[in-house]
User: Fold these one by one.
Assistant:
Number 1:
Amino acid sequence: MNRFGIDINVKNTPKLDPEFMPILKFNRSFLAGAKKPVSIAVERADGQMATCHTFVYGTPEMAEADHYYVNRLVKTILWMKGGFKVYVAGDEGTYEYLKKAYSDGGEQDFDFHYMANVFEHPFEVVLVDKVPEAKDSPKKMGGHMEGCRIGFDAGGSDRKVSAVIDGESVYSEEVVWFPKITADPDYHYNGIVAALKSAAEHMPRVDAVGVSSAGVYINNRTMNASLFLAVPEDLYDKKVKDIYIRAITDTFGDVPFEVVNDGDVSALAGMLSLGEPNVLGIAMGTSEAVGYVDTNGCITGWLNELAFVPVDCQSDAMEDEWSHDIGCGVKYFSQDGVIKLAPRAGIELDEKLSPAEKLKVVQGLMLEDSQAAADVYLSIGTYLGHTLAYYFDLYNCKHVLLLGRVMSGKGGDIILAEAQRVLADEYPELDGKIIPALPDEKFRRVGQSAAAASLPELK
């Protein structure tokens, strides 16, 4: 394989996507010949900084390869950790390219506007003599069991709530709701309050509230979330950004609370069930939802939106309809990945079916031991083996819990086995360092809403 003059050796390629070019392989081959030092830092909320020291070629002949490499690197940092200001030192050509690419109307226009909106700060790329030092503010969160607690888990199709007393769930309920298609934010607010009150009725008092919710949360504020997709922008700013803060304080007054991305809460539930930290949770469903608990058992506050982190460097990789970028995780590790590969395996999917229904068709064929369906899951497993090596490069994560509808049933077993095989064959240096697994019964007993209840520390 060759891209921009960089030769890439890949031993294991997906049966249904033989041109798949793992980004870790590209990066390693690129850096083998790049000698000019470049430093990049990305600033995010509260002065936190993600800093990377790397290399480019810095020659006219390799400019295209340089630009591609730094573009994918900055995009990875932005969607892994978040940020609104990119500092560049060491190469003016890299700065000029990134400033043009990450601009209004530029190559990465979507990322430019999204990050500015999430962090409520204009996005900019600046040239400096020296980039700022890395700075993180991880928070020890979760695992607090004492007292009377409520855990609320906001999903796109149902909402779950648990009443937990000294670590034991005494009540839980699951209610169907339709947040993604409802424009009135009072519907969401009233649903959240109803769930909180329902749980409170089963305890003598409420000491703390933890919330697990899809989206981006900074200081407990809802900066971006698909749950509120239909809410108009003016109402979003007025009624959604502080919706959980209002719902909790209006209902219970001044009690400790935490609002955390649902991926991070999944990783926390994994840590509680494993009894070990350093857990990356990957849920493959409608999208690729990811959370991370670090080596100290802390939640990092990073975005962890790996659905929009590039994993494939091939030039005709599938485009994501939302960001209009190509080769990003959402098209490989979600129901979109299954739908993309099914026709290549000879499986006809009725276009009138919803994405979830199309996934069920492939899952049904897998129950019948269809070789075509097995080829779909084997190909996803190959994707995953290469990509887990990349995620290890980014996170240094020991445990990886694989969740979601795509990982259910026989297909999930095939994906896991193939990913383990590819890791062992292509990345033997990672043997024992990264351990992918499906959740066990202990994890399922912890539950998302019960894990959410353990988030806040009592005053």
Note: The first helix runs from residue 23 to 33.
Number 2:
Amino acid sequence: MKQEKRIAGLYFRPILKNIAYRGHLAQQKFSAVSYKNHKIIEKDPSEWVIIYDNHEPIVSQELWDKVQARIKSKAHGKSDKRGLTHPLSGFLYCADCGCKTKMCHADTGKNHSVLFNFNCGDHMRFGRTKCFSHYIPARLLEEVIIDDIRTMAQRIVLDEDAIKKEFIRHNAELADNTVKSAKRELKTKQKRSDELSRLIQATYEDKVNGKMPEDICFGLIEKYSTEQKTLAVVIEELENKIKDTETSQQSADDFIRDIKKYLNAPTLTREMCYELLDRVVVGGLPKITGKERTIDIVYKVDISSVLRYKFNK
């Protein structure tokens, strides 16, 4: 079974990423190593020649975006012995160590029914040396999350325009603060990188002019070069962060449309979690922490502040 799933994954993953299904034609995706070495290598997608809207698309942009979002999602989840994946599998995190939770089950002995629960993954694998118990029944989590989704959907239905305006204002403010902070850090890193280039040049000139021993010169150059390479990685990450923040504005309309569908949802589903949730952070048991348990539900779009639920169970 595992071998069949692995093979299926190898065949279907390229299909799910093939832009031909969106009506685009990608060319020059492969090349040879050289005119002597004819080994075929796949180019980076940034080097492809793409003709957009070349033919009639097979899938809609909305469906394509959902598939790509699911591929990128960290919440892939795991199946139980029956091949079933719990709706929250992969979405839950421990509030104290940050580890993903592990799903467990217990046979009740009545009508062969099974009760599922979650606990800190590090605690389950390594015991108290890593983290303490965060045991919580799956049923309780499902009730909390579906109730919160229904409550948010009800609020949106009652006052959709006001919530949409608040989201747009909050999102613009958050993006502005993120970009400003990243730009300040980027400027500092670039300044240091330029300074290192000057130091490397000055060190080499001192060695050529006989002002510095060769071993000291090479040692300093190696030190400066290592720091500069590390900075180059950080600078690239900051530039990408700024670009993503400035160009990718999540639509309030899309989120509102998605959450309104679940106004009267009877149960929590996997699709619902993928569409709405970013993660759920589970606090420790009251008898261990000495304080009320908290469950933080973090949505993909921050229309309202993160709601905090408290339990004394």
Note: The first helix runs from residue 2 to 16.
Number 3:
Amino acid sequence: MEEKHPSFDIKNSLDSKLGEKKIVLCITGSVAAVKSSDLARLLMRHGADVFPVMSKAACNIIHPDLMHWATGRYPIIELTGNVEHVALAGNTKTKADLIIIAPCTANTIGKIATGVDDTSVTTFATTAIGEKIPLLVVPAMHEPMYRHPFVKENIDKLISYGITVMQPRVEEGKAKIPENNEIYEKVLELLSPASGKKLLEGKKMIVTAGRTVEYIDPIRVVTNNSSGKMGVALAEKAAEAGADVTLIAGKISVTPSKKIKVIYTDTGQEMYDAVHKELESSHYDIFAAAAAVGDWQAEEKSTEKISTHEKDSLVIRLKPTPKIIDSIKAKYPLIFLLVFRAQHDLPEAGLLEDAKKRMEKAAADMVAVNDVSKKGVGFESDTNEMFVITNNGYTEKIAMDLKENVAKKIISVLAKEIDKK
């Protein structure tokens, strides 16, 4: 009887881009579960066969009958002698093409990251990971929960193992689930990678990120507040867009995923040398200078710790550090150069004018600039607001958003500029 359910009539009603793909839609106990039936039917309208799996907590938000109506299939709430997790996520001929967990609570993210199986959803996730079935995790929770360092650590852990995690929309104090159309686009990308060329497919790219330190003695340094979050986000999004990315990092507070090659450096000179060694060793198409390289270094560095017990004051003479971005185009004129610029408390017109001048001085193709005096913008924050300007006169303002989303928009502009060349 189930195969004749009336809801199957909506399959392929929009198109067949997901034609005959088998998708397991797992639902956990977030209030965002109220959108799950619509997501299921959207996937079906694009041709997918959807198999719902619900945790018991999810059943307290929406009734299982709703998902039965939406998909034409009884939701899996408890595992039975039919070993549903093996049939749909194990090494069988009936396994799914994709497992989605939408919405995914902080609790479930933590369980997946640590291999805990105590719900139908987590058992499906563990089985899918072991079988290397693509897994799409779509978090939804209260914003303070999303900001919890252990939750972020668990998300980073999932990403490092190749699990796709969609970033939520942070609004009204909540980390809200993306719109269903956005989830569908991500599903299409995961299941139909050949349906369209990725934005940076075939491109090799270097990204610098984080802050450098300049020693005044073996212990003390001159530095800045950059966390490296923006540069790492840019590297991650470039990799998702198909680029072969090398990240040259100073001090960073986030862990890049394992799909990205990382070269760690300390001082501005070390980063300068690492950049040029990498550029000399292989052909690169794009150089994105997102690192906050220190502008000043001590003229003379003490070889011993400077004692505060022997001095009433200390005078340190500083000299400029080597400018990485000004050294690129002279030696590699064909590389696409994106530079980042941070300013403090400038009016918008002044911010744009300053960015254009810096772009011209470096002979860069594109500049991304922000005003770090604004709350939630720039150093150490998870959000950013930027202007991107190209050397052909195009300017776009990227509204405040999570750095991952800002990075994605920068990549979009960058890709369009590269296509023009």
Note: Residues 403-420 form the longest helix (18 residues).
Number 4:
Amino acid sequence: MRILLVEDDAMLGEGLQAALQLEGYAVDWLQDGEAAWAALATDTFDLLILDLGLPRLPGLEVLARLRARDTDLPVLILTARDTPRERVQGLDAGADDYLIKSFDIDELGAHLRALTRRRGGRRNPLIRHGAIELDPATHEVRLEGRPLALPRREFSLLNLLLENAGQVVTKPRLQEALYGWEEDVESNTLEVHIHHLRRKLGKQAIRTVRGVGYMIPGESE
């Protein structure tokens, strides 16, 4: 999953980016509202974590512009503004969730997973598909009931493919979900991850759609 983090506090932003990357997210971090809006207008993200007290362009204005485009991008407001009036204002402006500073990183992770489930139309915290069971909260995978250890990026790749089971996920979309702006990516890195997953899950688990991307077939296929 690719997250845009917009936070002007350098210490907090750097810490959040590092912590979320360890959880398997691809995180791009910006520190002002104008830069955030430019990124949102030209790039693709799965989720936006947005501070309100931003320089150059307030967070609520970024949110208003985003919702004016009729996009369903999930938005989590992360702010020190904790009065009921300000929470109502943020939610009414189009935010999907609201988290007050300070907070525990595990709490933030739980909010992000809830937003992801909601967007995907899932209620069950576990993702089950055939013989595969994946737990986004604990990063545990089971194949036919047996634990399957996966490195961070293989887990993230499998998670995304399972969330879109039955649909082709393009190569650019998969790469965006795995790597942020500042990370160097070899041209065949995605193919290597797919190869490793097939070796662990079975050759038929992931289908190649030539010239487009990859997919996990639906349950009925």
Note: The chain is about 40% helix and 20% strand.
